[in-house]
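Dear colleague,

As promised, here are the two records you asked about, laid out in our usual form so they can be pasted straight into your sheet.

NAME FIELD: protein one
SEQUENCE, THEN STRUCTURE:
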Amino acid sequence: MADGSYALGTHPAERRRLERQHAIWREETLAAWHRAGFTAGQRLLDLGCGPGFASLDLATLVGPGGRVLAVDRSPAYLDHLRWEAAERRLPQLEVLELDLATDDGATLPDRGGWDGAWCRWVCLFLPRLDPLLAGIAAALRPGGRLVVHDYVRWDTFSLHPSGGGVARFVERTIAHWRSEGGDPDVAGRLPAQLEARGLRLLQARSLMACGAGQDPKALWLQDFLEAYPPRLAQAGFWTAEDQRALEADLAQAARHQAFWVTPALVEQIWERPLP
């Protein structure tokens, strides 16, 4: 990881990119929380919260009678979130610095006391899922629910038509993540692992999207295509020739009719069953 916490760092430009990302997916996020029954007065976890854009929405949702604990391993992002919570007068929002990939991730506070947990785009980056999943299972009260948004097929990320530059980027990104212990298809592994920890799958749905060049989710993909190649190059997975091929694809898409397809994102809602 670039700063020991996030692949693209925690600098202001990356924070702004993550803010745009949250805004683009916010409608789907709020709908998922509604389907899970997240509501005012509840105690909710935001696991792998990053700069905390979802945490702020959760804190607004639960209101002053609830509690949100935002968990992340980046001190810079947590400092930013503390400042935002104070500015917005959200005392119900607390933060906790914790590495969810280590054994500490299995020791979330207030065991059995949480009404719900939210986890988006975290599992795919964890070399070890056991600490996080064990921590979630122990943290939820009977009847408590977990909402997960993560990828089941990252290789569906594509541009049509394409000269191959985007496809090369997708292939190299997958290889890079796997080399660091990640799994860009991790959602497919979660059912067996969460069932083994006593949770029950209530709902699952696809959030995969397709759009023309100025569609918000198409712009989200293009945003990532701008931000991530330098990290790939630093890790030895990207060359100048690769970058030229990618830029040729983007130029072609800007001049002619084309559409984008997102990675196959899946929503899962799980419950810790009542006795």
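NAME FIELD: protein two
SEQUENCE, THEN STRUCTURE:
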Amino acid sequence: MTSQNNVLKGVFLVAIGATTYGMLATFVKMAYSEGYTTAEVTTSQFIYGIMGILLINLFQKIKNKNTTLKATPKNIFSLMLAGTSLGMTSLFYYLAVKYIPVSIGIVLLMQTVWMGVLLEMILEKKLPSKQKVIAVIIVLFGTVLATNIINNDIELDWRGLIWGILAAASFTTTMFTANRVATEISSAQRSLYMLLGGATIVFSFAFATQITPFNFEIFLKWGIVLALFGTIIPPMLMNAGFPLTGIGLGSIVSALELPVSVMMAFVLLNEKVILSQWIGIILIILAIIIMNVNFKPKK
């Protein structure tokens, strides 16, 4: 019964984490509508995010009376290097939703499903299973419907499409490295060093692209919201939930991010989402379930 309770607890944690991350792009779009730049949005998010994770680390240190395993210099370097892809994901994703609807942006981000299979095939030098191949085909078909590219009435800005695909590619790298780098230290420490690595990318981008004076009002208006929904709540809850659910079930539950993101854009941004797009979204979620369910009978 205890293990079942742990799984339920894990499902709840991953579900809340995925839901909060699903809301993020809508808030970014709302910040854009008020005239804030991508540099201002990402900088405020990462600064507050680092401050929040630092406080969580401090709390854990006091609670555990300094018995927590500390990161070695090698751990720190590896995590910061892995974190650069985290910074790129935020940048590319936010640049994507600047040019295309949020409902399309989240679908492009979900291309991590087939990119992950491809990366795994390259790294492990073996062909994917039939189950994964079927899931990839369903994802691609679902993407055609969900992005509504067969409907000639909609013209999608090519810049948004390119940034969206780049966001998916960097997110795939983040997911692979996050599960393999310095897993022996606490999730709060890992989150902190990955965030610091991501911050180097974000701050470099801000320095290079911010041509107008930096609008510090972003810290009062959107910074805390973006940090909570993007860099503090989702990684902390998912890092706590995934060990309890396992990767398979956790991945299925985290697919909640997709319908939540589309619903938020529909309700708060009045984005039009037609029936064929909803069918595409359901197909992508179905593909994630197929990829992560073990269909082999237990012996």
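A couple of things worth noting about protein two: Residues 13 and 268 are 25 Å apart (CA to CA). The mean pLDDT is 86.

Best,
R.
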